[in-house]
Amino acid sequence: MEKICVAVRVRPPVSQEVSNGLYWKVEDNRISLHKPLGTPISGVSYAFDHVFDQNCTNAKVYELLTKDIIRAAVEGFNGTAFAYGQTSSGKTFTMNGRENDPGIIHLAVKDIFQNIQMAIDREFLIRVSYMEIYNEEINDLLAPENQKLQVHESLERGIFVAGLREEIVNNTEQVIKLIELGEVNRHFGQTNMNARSSRSHTIFRMVIESKGKDTTSSDYSNSDAVRVSFLNLVDLAGSERIAKTGAGGVRLKEGKHINKSLMVLGNVINKLSDGSKQRGHIPYRDSKLTRILQPALGGNAKTSIICTVAPEEIHIEETKGTLQFASRAKRITNCVQVNEILTDAALLKRQKLEIEELRKKLQGSRAEVLEQEILKLRNEMLKYELEHEKLAMELEEERKSHKERDRCIKEQQMKIDNLSNLVSCSEQDRNSVQNSNGHPFSQRQYQSLEIWEQSLKEDSNDNYSIFQGDAFRTPCFKAAPNTFVAKRSDYSMPLDTSPIPDDFGNVADEDLWLRLNKGQATDLDSLQMTPARENHSFPSIDASPGYSIDYYKEEIQKLKQQLEHAIKEKDELERNNAEQLFLNSQLLQEISELQHESLLIREIPPRLCESVANCKDIYKDVLSMMQSFVADEKSSTAKLLSSTSDIAVCLFSTLETHFSMDKDGCSVLSGENSPIQEQWKVLVEKLKSAATTLASLQAPTSEHQHLMVPVHTSKNEGFDFGGANASWMEKLGHELNAIKEKYQILDKDFNHNNKLLESFKEKCHSLERECSILKEEKTFLVQKLSKSSQKLELVTDQRDKLSKDLSLEVQKRKELEREITRFSLAFARRQKALMTFHGECKSKIEFLRTLSPGSKSKTLGY
Ligand SMILES: Nc1ncnc2c1ncn2[C@@H]1O[C@H](COP(=O)(O)OP(=O)(O)OP(=O)(O)O)[C@@H](O)[C@H]1O
Question: Atom 13 in ligand 1: which residue has the minimum CA distance?
């Protein structure tokens, strides 16, 4: 199995856009989104096999991403490279390149012919085709008259496009000319995003057939086999937002088809990235593109995807979409095998050689033949004796290892039980963790995991070691069975004299062994694609998936790392939590203080209301008294008093409303220059002038000569009285002074309240700020919590998977045991047959020895 290789390429910016300063940063094989001051935005960072920045050349992309695929294609492996991305992100630039920077297709073609020249022991036949999928119809780009071609599938050819022209080519130049011809017929169009936008998906295909040159070789197993590989180089049309491309009419129709087929491609990738177990039906048939690319997506092909992205801020959403597509594609695995076809000629040749060998045996003198036969039989006998001893030893060892395995399986069973307990506990704890502190594992679970890992380690050192030097390994190990099979196949050659019983052949049979060995298993997809072909694993890749102890160790290591990471996160969360609690307690304290203050403040307005009412009463008394001094109602003094009265009424009503509003909690805070204060000042001034006027009017003449008007003195800020009827005047003066004092008190209260309200307001603001900070922190913490619970789920899933794998492993072991039993039976039978054969040989030799040379042929009856 082999993962798809996925790379991302960022093209240089093409427009001077209006930006907020967000930008994509490329570091090694990672691409991440950053804020203007360089802070990375969390959750928008992706890693791939390669990430190419805007300065990267096509040659470098080819070297790192496609060169291996091309080499493998020449060796007989299917290969596919395709470019995926938003419109105008640089797909065509990457695949086709430009004059001074040739693209992947040109570089690949050149490389193929260079590789062919180096493979001197093989001869090649190369065929080239070039097609496009335009509005969900397949057109031949090398023969424009071939339109609306159909996709078919047959046992012989696998999935193929019927009626597509294939040109046989011998060199790079021929291919380049064909590509140029195809480019002329390709659909391009102008959009707002790209002056030359590809309106179709194009597939440039090379079929590489090769055969060994040495046809006289006696190794008739492979020399005549023909290798056929398909290389697809695909330039997809770009996904586009109709609003951005400004597409209408034909372009709109094209855009819809493009988006639809890319959506199907995305669905296929999604399904494939789910992993083989959950994957279910893969909707390859939903579009022509996915149907044609089927072998490249989860099938028999080495595949690489280059995802191109635009760096501009306006394309951030599209770029994120492409990166998510790439991330999913990274999870896909393909099963790559070389495609070989055993031709009729090769089979014929094999049979001819066998007949030739038999004929040779019949030729020559009979005596010589007999001598040779005796020698051969002796050698074989010795060989069988040796083999016999070795097998007896192996059987003994096998019995021992069998016992050992029994023990291991029991232990494994116990561990699986432990694991299931662990997983169910983890599930419970996770629920409780989500309610409390975000801890992904309890201490107990962690310890269980440690114990489990430790015991697996011990297993790997002790128990599993018996498999390592053992010829009967589990199907995960390949080396020994191959040598074993090779040894067996020697014996099966001279069929007429073979001592091996028929039913033993079932056990040592190569096919059966291959079936037992996962690494050599034939892939069903490839059977459909290449009938009557022998499939061999790609040599550089270990095809056995992880049921070995190393696999479990690796998995445990990963789990442990995740666990440590989760614990770190949990610690951090706990720290944050403690800080939050501290902040919370502080806040609570401040809030209670503020509540106390606000209670006090709330008491002020009613008190003020009362004061205002008192003042109003006093004022009314004073005014009526003043008015009583004025004889003429039309005099200026009377007018002054009445206007004063108006202002006072107005002032008192304003004050009443103001304080009653305060009382209701909807106060509008007054400043130094509030209208109330202004009115108050005016009133005071008017009262003073009225008093002065009255004094000046009353003092010399009036009917109220006995009255002395209070005079404002700068000394004591009060009023002075003199003259007759002093006691009454004194009383009046006292009252006026009392009013003045009350006014001053009120004024002070008023100012004090204003200050209190101001500070209250400030505190409110700071509380609001703190609240919003707390809210942000809370959201951040909630996000973190949900992330770590997701991780926990992942870890639990992985553990489930592991336990499933373990149970699979146990099943496999059981199967292996059954095989061993069968083998032991077969071995016993074989031993018996060997003994018989041994006896026969001995008697034959004895018999031959007793014969005199003259009577040999007669006695033997030849
Ligand atoms: N790596 C690069 N270096 C320089 N120029 C580039 C690069 N990638 C793309 N461009 C330029 O950007 C423009 C758009 O590129 P291109 O046509 O390859 O995009 P596309 O993804 O194929 O678009 P569409 O899907 O619409 O066909 C072209 O002018 C191309 O020359």
Answer: 88
